TrEMBL record:
It comes from the Bacteria. PROSITE patterns: ABC_TRANSPORTER_1, ABC_TRANSPORTER_2. Pfam families: ABC_tran. Keywords: ATP-binding, Nucleotide-binding, Transport. One of its GO terms (molecular function) is ATP hydrolysis activity. This is ATP-binding cassette domain-containing protein. It comes from Limnovirga soli. The keyword rRNA-binding does not apply. Residues 5-234 form the ABC transporter domain. The keyword Transport applies. The lineage of its organism: Bacteria, Pseudomonadati, Bacteroidota, Chitinophagia, Chitinophagales. Belongs to the ABC transporter superfamily. SMART domains: AAA (SM00382).
Length: 311
């Protein structure tokens, strides 16, 4: 499968701050690639280097098999992007903005194509309204439409759900899936809404302090045999003693708070629950921790349970 993005040893130094540190990753054709990290992790800096808005200190970037330094114009013709708050002409309508940006991109669009594009991002019926009357969420939708106007092969979205209400967030999620599955686009999306990324991403990259922490598919990152289980009872001390004296002892993990942690296969949860009831443990909760959000917190600076994954 073709590599759409190939980044090798990418670094960016700002004075005495290394925003991106020897970062390497690949995005393959058709991926919905989730790019995750806490604020200040280096996500936006990386995206700006992918779009040639800033120059790397070190490293190489290839898009579509071409070196970004030597084939910048040819590459960017095939890329659509939205970074943070999109800029547009506030005193023009949504339709006029899209038509203008299409013209600037050298694309001839009929009225129907532009109208269909606006409907696709949820702005149907508002195409003739001036952008100055739009909410931030509506501007975000228009920005996505602008990024798609020249029918790019690669779409880079930096926090595309900023300013959107729950329905708008769901609409963007469905739009990303439509772009990938129905239109064959490769989508590189940075977001802090981990639950949304979990629902759309085929592969995920997590960075922390400019460095790659982990990269892989959801199946690789969320091995069911490595499920972390958090137990809370009315008497955790007594429950821990019982666990230590049982066959469940092999699954116990170092405690990071007052709760009890085990690492075991997800399929073992019913048996564990049954055993706890049989031991008359006053069970308050038995909570599997196996979501992208939990994993993210474990491998970045919020490493409350990281030992349970690495020991």
């Amino acid at each position: 499968m073709q590599d759409i993005i190939k980044v090798t040893g990418l670094s960016k130094q700002f004075s005495n701050i290394k925003a991106v540190n020897n970062l390497s990753f690949t995005v393959q054709n058709g991926d919905v690639y989730g790019f995750l990290g806490q604020n200040g992790a280096g996500k936006s800096t990386t995206i700006r280097m992918l779009l040639t808005l800033i120059t790397p200190t070190e490293g190489e970037i290839e898009l579509f098999g071409l070196n970004l330094k030597t084939h910048r114009h040819q590459i960017l013709q095939q890329v659509g992007a939205i970074i943070e708050k999109p800029d547009m002409y506030l005193y023009l309508s949504a339709y006029e903005n899209l038509r203008l940006f299409a013209k600037l991109s050298g694309v001839h669009c009929t009225k129907k194509i532009i109208t269909d594009q606006l409907h696709m991002v949820g702005l149907g019926g508002r195409e003739n309204d001036k952008v100055k009357t739009f909410s931030q969420g509506m501007k975000q939708r228009l920005g996505i439409a602008i990024s798609l106007v020249h029918n790019p092969k690669l779409i880079i979205l930096d926090e595309p759900t900023n300013g959107l209400d729950p329905q708008g967030i769901a609409d963007v999620r469905n739009l990303i899936l439509h772009l990938s599955r129905e239109m064959g686009k490769t989508v590189f999306v940075s977001s802090h809404l981990l639950n949304e990324i979990e629902q759309v991403a085929t592969r995920v990259l997590i960075i922390d302090k400019g460095k790659k922490i982990v990269e892989g598919s959801a199946a690789e990152l969320f091995d069911p045999s490595q499920t972390i289980v958090e137990i809370d009872t009315l008497d955790n001390k007594q429950c821990m003693v019982l666990l230590q004296q049982s066959s469940w002892q092999q699954y116990l993990q170092p405690q990071r708070s007052h709760t009890i942690l085990l690492k075991l296969h997800r399929n073992s949860l019913p048996d564990l629950h049954k055993w706890l009831v049989q031991q008359d443990c006053a069970l308050l909760s038995l909570q599997p921790r196996h979501t992208l959000e939990d994993f993210f917190l474990q491998v970045t600076s919020g490493k409350q349970y990281v030992e349970a994954f690495t020991n």
